[in-house]
Amino acid sequence: PALINDTKKSVCAVPVLRRLDQEEGAGYGRLRATLGAPSRTALLSDRVNFLDTRRTCAADIRCLEATYRAQIRLHDALRFCVLGRGDQRACVVAAIAKHREELHRSL
Fold first, then answer.
1. 3-state secondary structure the chain
2. Residue 75, C-beta contacts closer than 8 angstroms, at least 6 positions apart
3. Which of 16, 64, 73, 103 has the greatest number of C-beta atoms within 10 Å?
4. pLDDT one-digit tens code per residue, 1-30
5. Model-level pTM?
6. pLDDT of 46 strictly over 90
7. Closest CA to 10 of 56, 49, 78
8. Cα–Cα distance for residue pair 69/20, rounded to 1 Å
């Protein structure tokens, strides 16, 4: 059986977190389906970072909401990398680096 931790309990119990979780998951899935292989590798690495950050929030609703909103903003930025004409992987890596820096400053 799956282990249910404080983070998962909070996400399930709080409607805004449930909605953000669904939105973030859908955005991640769309990006995974549209990014090239090298960019997907960077996206997967960031996904691990997101899940670790989310886990450190535990049951802190404000922390969880801020983490989800930041990740959704990243997904929005990464969509521009998909549409752009330049080096997609460089765009993705730069967007993720900026995102991580901003996220760690805010938490």
1. CCCCCHHHHHHHHCHHHHHHHHHHHHHHHHHHHHCCHHHHHHHHHHHHHHHHHHHHHCCCHHHHHHHHHHHHHHHHHHHHHHHCCCCHHHHHHHHHHHHHHHHHHHC
2. 24, 27, 28, 30, 31
3. 64
4. 455 688 888 999 999 999 999 999 999 999
5. 0.88
6. yes
7. 56
8. 7
Which region holds residue 84: left if phi is over 0, alpha if psi is between -120 and 50, else beta? beta
Rounded distance between C-alpha atoms, residue 11 and residue 19, angstroms: 9
CB–CB of 82/30 below 8 Å? no
Instruction: Specify the pLDDT at position 61.
Output: 94
Q: Which residues contact 94 (CB under 8 A, 6 or more apart)?
A: none
Q: pLDDT of 65-99, one tens digit each?
A: 999 999 999 999 999 898 877 899 999 999 999 99
14: phi then psi, degrees, rounded to nearest 5: -110, 115
